[in-house]
Specification:
Length: about 425
């Protein structure tokens, strides 16, 4: 499908975006470790998180969905599925489930779509194999399909070279299925929803910052966790597309009920540095700080980004759209991880910006963008939701056509409805 966006005008609008993807995945997966009925309100009904829920069902959970609240009734024991577990486009699903299933009796096969089957899995299979997991896959357990023969795992002390919440979460779940205390260390704090949620459910997990590194001690599970009763906050990464829309059109976006967790809102801080006025309004603070973000656009200035990269990795493509119209040369470095997301996001950003007449250059670990006039172009989304939505937002300035825009449904099905608040668009069914 092609999404054609027509140029829009200034706006002053409220955005109630879809629920947080990271937290929704964890609700589905962690429910399996509980002893009862998990009540999840505002679960994200997007392709990625529906795949996580479907897998929970295949592993024995009973799901009751009244269209509003989703109840996940945990099985007495996680059961072996009689078919392949399909993770679709979702790295979070395949990696976190692998960590859980490595310690569960049974045989499991996890796979996904053509994009997921190209993404690196060594980052989870290597540490899991080092603690006794039986995992295999193409390229020596690096590419899905992954097969897992679940069984006994050893407690561990593992220091990861990358700050990845998916790897951390996989190892924390594996640690719950061992027989002694394990320690996981990452070089920089990655999003910490797993630690917060599992602690809230009664797991014995201690976290601290030590010499600039994030250290998590995990005790094995003695008994099942307490069921969740949670309202998932909205997703600040999805909302960021509309923050950029406000920033590049001198408009105002009022973003409602998102998590204000520091590991998730760093991109807003960068937009602020570029000249946007941003206000954070904290409304509650239980498992996660939750509130509103008000973004007001101004003339944008170029910026250099090389710190706190794990806290804004998913927002970098959208931020690149702000860089494309900012005054001066912006630089992003230290973001090599962008190359192993749903697409190679460094290549996707730079190639597509060039098509729009913007001067941009690739580095191995980032890019350089010189802000200027943007013209309408036919964008290759490379099947990547964040690339498709970023260029749709840039299209508010002078129009844009985006190929394979159906990928937006993997994370943010309400994007289209909200896009109509800022620009007119049409959808053409054939690419
Ligand atoms: O754990 C999570 O929910 C996620 C972790 C990040 O990936 P990495 O763990 O690969 O950094 C992020 O990019 C992804 O969108 C969601
Ligand atoms: C990288 C992302 O997700 P995942 O790794 O779960 O596919 C994303 O949503 O930008």
């Amino acid at each position: 499908m092609i999404l054609e966006v027509f140029s829009g005008k200034q706006f002053n609008e409220e955005f109630l975006v879809d629920a947080d993807k990271s937290i929704s995945h964890r609700c589905a997966i962690f429910s399996l470790l509980t002893n009862g009925e998990n009540i999840i309100k505002n679960y994200l009904r997007a392709e990625d998180t529906l795949n996580s829920l479907e897998i929970a069902k295949k592993l024995g959970a009973k799901i009751e969905d009244n269209g509003d609240v989703i109840k996940i009734i945990a099985p007495k024991k996680i059961k072996e599925a009689d078919d392949v577990l399909y993770c679709g486009n979702s790295g979070t699903t395949i990696r976190i489930y692998s960590g859980l299933l490595a310690g569960v009796d049974g045989f499991f096969v996890l796979t996904g779509d053509e994009y997921l089957r190209r993404r690196p899995m060594k980052r989870i299979s290597a540490p899991l194999i080092s603690i006794g997991a039986k995992i295999d896959g193409r390229e020596n357990a690096n590419l899905a399909p992954l097969s897992i023969r679940g069984g006994k795992l050893k407690s561990f002390k593992y220091e990861s070279k990358i700050a990845s919440a998916q790897v951390k979460s996989a190892m924390i779940l594996a640690a719950l299925n061992t027989n002694d205390i394990s320690t996981y260390i990452e070089p920089f704090l990655s999003r910490d929803h797993t630690e917060r949620m599992l602690k809230g459910m009664g797991a014995d997990i201690e976290c601290k910052m030590e010499n600039g590194k994030w250290r998590v001690n995990i005790a094995p599970l003695k008994e099942k966790l307490n069921p969740l009763n949670i309202t998932v906050p909205n997703d600040p990464s999805s909302a960021f597309f509309f923050a950029v829309a406000a920033a590049i059109t001198n408009s105002t976006a009022i973003i409602k009920n998102v998590t204000l967790n520091q590991t998730r809102i760093e991109a807003y801080k960068v937009l602020e540095k570029m000249g946007a006025t941003i206000e954070y309004i904290l409304k509650e603070d239980k498992y996660e700080p939750i509130g509103d973000i008000v973004v007001k656009g101004n003339q944008l200035q170029a910026v250099e980004v090389s710190n706190n990269i794990p806290w804004l990795i998913d927002e970098l493509p959208a931020l690149a759209m702000a860089m494309a119209v900012a005054h001066g040369k912006s630089i992003v470095r230290g973001a090599k991880e962008l190359r192993v997301k749903e697409s190679d996001r460094i290549k996707a950003v730079v190639e597509n910006l060039k098509k729009c007449g913007v001067e941009a250059k690739e580095f191995e670990d980032g890019y350089e963008i010189i802000g200027g006039d943007v013209k309408s172009a036919l964008i290759d989304s490379f099947g990547d939701h964040r690339i498709a939505m970023s260029f749709a937002i840039l299209g508010i300035l002078s129009g844009m056509k985006i190929q394979q825009a159906e990928c937006i449904n993997t994370s943010f099905p309400n994007f289209f409805k909200l896009l109509s608040k800022v620009a007119k668009y049409r959808i053409m069914d054939v690419d």
